[in-house]
């Protein structure tokens, strides 16, 4: 165990160079491969070899390279063709705002108020409508009018409640909401955020502070609403981060939130309850961000990862945007798990090289050398279920 903490960006890339089966005679001598790669970077993508999470290139020297990423790069259109994902937001003629190209469509109202439908996710026969409707503090606040401000794949609604704003970010397989408490609210700390949830083609099941949205017929998990973490603006003295990445120190986080769901008047109500003791602590530094997320579960992934923490032994980190290793200043020991599916590489191919690229985003001890050790996992685990205590959730999603 070492007394420093390191964050690694979860844009993980596994690069394989290999000789395709049946093409050994045309392959260059392995001893010349490195030299030729250094003199030319020209290569052609084999579009027909795309998968959701991989690209394959012809290196024009008798070898191929496959890059497998942690997040989806492509989606299949209605003709079965793999196309590049583009989640930048654009306005529609109907006065909506939606993402451009993905397997699912996310729509927002240009202007929101207490009568808005909220965020809508459309995909095939599925529809999810989620609206942050109320905040309970010393009173009950309803959603205030706000006009969305678009930047690339994000939309911001300012002052939707007193001293509270919201930012929605569309990712390759998720929709993330940042609830921002700009300062200690004048109306008192939020005791509960209440959402309305409407489903089409989906059922739900709540397990261990998570809400799984299941196909009504097959009971297969389609989406996951997970209890978020929250973090304040604290930065440890030695904390250093890459400027382009909004890295969050482990010491600034809290996972003490509760996610409840109930049925009322033929509608689902989701209550998000933050830890008031943490929010009101004297050392708390505002702004504070509460970070819920809806994830599209992909079934079989080429690459999965999660972060586990001994201070939060039943909390899963499958939706974290960074991988963590080390021990934080508050004694929280953090480990990260990675798993790769290599079936996109032909089984008869001869592997010439394999590289795992992890990008440093932040560290709490910039003066010390950083040593990271990799160990083979001997037990199976699931990305959105593994924690310090559990490999998998023991309860089954079937039998509803």
Descriptive notes:
With 400 residues, the protein is mostly beta strands. The protein is 4% helix and 49% strand. Strand 16 (154-161) and strand 17 (164-170) form a beta hairpin. The longest helix is centred in the first third of the chain and has 10 residues, at 30-39.
Instruction: Give the count of helical stretches.
Output: 2
Task: Please state the overall shape, judged from the principal axes of the Cα atoms.
Answer: globular
In percent, how much strand structure appears in the residues? over 45%
> By helix and strand content, what is the structural category?
mainly beta
What is the oligomeric state here?
Answer: single chain
Proportion of helical residues: under 10%
Low-confidence stretches: 1-6, 8-12, 21-40, 394-400
* Strands, total number: 31
What is the first-to-last residue Cα distance? 43 Å
Biggest sheet character: 9 strands, antiparallel
Gyration radius, in Å: 23 Å
Mean pLDDT: 81
Topology diagram in text:
Blueprint lengths: L4 E15 L10 H10 L4 E2 L8 E5 L5 E6 L4 E3 L5 E3 L1 E6 L4 E6 L3 E5 L1 E2 L6 E5 L2 E11 L3 E3 L3 E2 L1 E3 L2 E8 L2 E7 L3 E8 L10 E9 L1 E6 L2 E6 L5 E11 L8 E2 L11 E2 L2 E8 L2 E8 L1 H4 L8 E9 L6 E7 L12 E6 L5 E8 L9 E14 L37
Antiparallel strand pairs: 1-4, 1-29, 1-31, 2-3, 3-4, 5-6, 7-8, 8-9, 9-11, 10-14, 11-12, 12-13, 12-19, 15-16, 16-17, 17-18, 18-27, 19-26, 20-21, 21-22, 22-24, 22-27, 23-31, 25-26, 28-30, 29-30
Brief synopsis:
It contains two helices and 31 strands. It has 400 residues and is mainly beta. The radius of gyration is 23 Å and the shape is globular.
């Amino acid at each position: 165990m070492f007394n420093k903490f390191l964050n690694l960006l979860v844009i993980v890339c596994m690069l394989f160079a290999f000789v395709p089966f049946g093409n050994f005679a045309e392959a260059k001598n392995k001893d010349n491969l490195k030299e030729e790669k250094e003199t030319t970077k020209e290569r052609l993508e084999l579009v027909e070899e795309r998968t959701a999470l991989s690209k394959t290139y012809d290196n024009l020297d008798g070898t191929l390279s496959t890059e497998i990423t942690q997040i989806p790069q492509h989606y299949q259109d209605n003709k079965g063709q793999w196309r590049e994902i583009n989640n930048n937001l654009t306005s529609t003629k109907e006065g909506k705002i939606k993402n451009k190209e993905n397997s699912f469509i996310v729509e927002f109202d240009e202007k929101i108020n207490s009568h808005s439908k909220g965020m809508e996710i459309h995909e095939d026969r599925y529809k999810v409508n989620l609206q942050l409707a109320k905040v309970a503090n010393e009173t009950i606040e309803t959603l205030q009018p706000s006009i969305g401000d678009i930047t690339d794949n994000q939309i911001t609604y300012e002052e939707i409640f007193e001293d509270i704003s919201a930012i929605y970010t569309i990712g390759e397989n998720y929709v993330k909401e940042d609830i921002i408490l700009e300062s200690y609210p004048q109306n008192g700390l939020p005791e509960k955020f209440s959402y309305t949830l409407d489903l089409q083609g989906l059922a739900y099941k709540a397990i261990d502070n998570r809400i799984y949205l299941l196909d009504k017929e097959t009971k297969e998990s389609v989406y996951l609403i997970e209890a978020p973490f929250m973090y304040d603006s604290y930065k440890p003295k030695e904390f250093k981060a890459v400027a382009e990445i909004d890295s969050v120190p482990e010491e600034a986080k809290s996972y003490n939130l509760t996610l409840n769901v109930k049925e009322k008047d033929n509608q689902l109500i989701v209550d998000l309850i933050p830890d008031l003791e943490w929010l009101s602590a004297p050392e708390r530094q505002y702004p504070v961000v509460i970070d819920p997320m809806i994830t599209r579960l992909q079934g079989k992934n080429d690459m999965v990862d999660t972060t586990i923490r001994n201070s939060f032994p039943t909390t899963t980190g499958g939706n974290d945007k960074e991988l963590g290793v080390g021990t934080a200043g508050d004694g929280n020991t953090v480990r990260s798990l990675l798993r790769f599916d290599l079936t996109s590489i032909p089984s008869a191919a001869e592997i010439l090289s394999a590289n795992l690229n992890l990008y440093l985003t932040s560290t709490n001890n910039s003066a010390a050398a950083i040593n990271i050790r990799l160990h083979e996992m001997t037990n199976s685990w699931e990305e959105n279920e593994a924690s310090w205590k559990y490999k998998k959730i023991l309860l089954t999603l079937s039998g509803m």
